[in-house]
Amino acid sequence: MIVVDYGRGNLFSLKQALLHVGGAPKISSDPADLATADKIVFPGVGAFGDAMDGLRAAGLVGPLKDAIARGTPLLGICVGCQLLLSLGEEFETHQGLDVIPGRVALLPRGNDPQRSDRIPNVGWRRIRVNAEDPVLGTLSAEDYVYFVHSFAPYADPDFVAAWLDYNGREVPVAVRRESVLGVQFHPEKSGDAGLRLLEAFRKL
Fold first, then answer.
1. pLDDT digits over 60-99, tens only?
2. CA distance 141 to 162
3. CB 109 within 8 Å of CB 167
4. 85: exposed, middle or buried (C-beta count within 10 Å: 0-12, 13-18, 19+)?
5. 8 Å CB contact between 153 and 182
6. Which residues belong to the active site?
7. Residue 11 pLDDT class (50, 70, 90 cuts)
């Protein structure tokens, strides 16, 4: 299992979580490792455009797309999830990997400053998932997962796999296309629920 290092990820806590569930993660920025990986974890923090710049500078755009085309299971986390989409609107419009059709855009604002959810969304929330997904299906309606984000992956509805109620709107927070899964929340910071998700991914 390869954890992609392109200078934009929270690698230590993610590696520790993967080790905890029996994984053998290798943190790497080497494109050759992606060519032989049995699974890929694609983390990310920060702004969409800056993260894409880091991915290009590391020479990893092509190798990532090639691995996905081969059917290598991939888990994108936070900005790693967002980069899977076609476009990102954070600080102007930027091209993403275009693996999943859609656009990364700001969370919806509420109408009541006193009662509306604030942006950014930071903290623990319940979500609704596609229970048939082999990884997301490990989460129940009672589980809480941890978010830190201002933007969300508004994918084509056919590829949305989990939703969050935010300011009265249903916001996508996970995307799925064949062997590729992206989650906006942080499994490595989501306690037992997050560990179950990572273990399910490891066992694929």
1. 999 999 999 999 999 999 999 999 999 999 999 999 999 9
2. 11
3. yes
4. buried
5. yes
6. 78, 186, 188
7. very high
